[in-house]
Amino acid sequence: MKHTLFRTFALALLMPLATARAAEEAPPATPVNQDEYYSSSFGDKPKNEGHSIAPVIGYDPTFGFVAGAAYFYQGHGLNFGVDGNLNFRRVYQTHARFSFDLGGLWRTDWNFGFIKGFENYYGEGGETSATPRQIWGNRITAQGRLLVALSERFSAGVIADARSRDEERGPDVKQLDRVAPDATVVAMGLSSVYDTRKDKLRSNDGFVFTSEILHGPPQAGHGSFTQLGGSFVVYKEILEGFIPDVVAAFRIMGGVSLGDTPYAFRYQLGGPTRLSGYLENRFRGSKFFLQQTELRFPIYKMVGGALSLGFGDASDGPFTNPKMAYGAGLRIGLPPDWVSKIRIDVGVGKDQIGIFADFGQTF
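^ thats the sequence. predicted structure below, dont judge the formating
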């Protein structure tokens, strides 16, 4: 029997309360082509700064009734967003992110998250059961990078990644059955980005190549570990001159961990951005690969659509059968410029169906 999960979302009610642009992505290091930007089929001329507020109300079959809110701000060189939600299953989540661009030369991006409650655990490797167990506890993440533009297209810098988790007894559980030790782990590394996009808000032409190396010294009862990863993303407007804003997007990515990798740093597949036909944390391993293709197209004014297809695997040993996922979704623009979006996706895998909603594009 297939399992279905509605990620926390604003499907029941999503009303922007302020007329300003939401922060979908950090502002580009080079100026946007204004003539091209204003001709987008998603609407009106954008503003340089402002904010948007979105109530979040919905029902989640796993967590029950969900309520919360999201707030976005964009100023000159600054993007900020925060969202939070709670439910009757005693799972509380909050996330924050900001990007700061200093004169087009330096850029820093940070993401923070806190979750109190349970997460589903399916096991390790690429051949896991669709029936999870619940792991109760607290999870905190903080990830950031500082990049310097070495040319118009190439930037490089340092990255930091801190993850903390602890496990606790859930309701009506007499004895704690641990999956992994409690730990707070910090890793540092280097990152490089080669980006040929002219319009980083619309991402309708060009490619982005990203590479990272991350190292964590011995800490919290673990030995040292090193992670090597990279991604290659291509965007192409395929019907320019006939139907505007029909974009084919392609992403291939992978990574490998060496050494004693902590539980929180092991690679995961499943969820809204990686193999969305499966639920979060479905496949786990010390290495992974993933390929995703999306066809994005306008439907009517602020509403667009997307069709997706992807495959990938995560494992500690040899990769087994690639896991396929396909799906469709909506992209709904937020006023006043309709560029920042909420996305609602339905993904189908072999033995699960995922229904997710989030802000921005998948990649």
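The longest strand covers residues 133-149.
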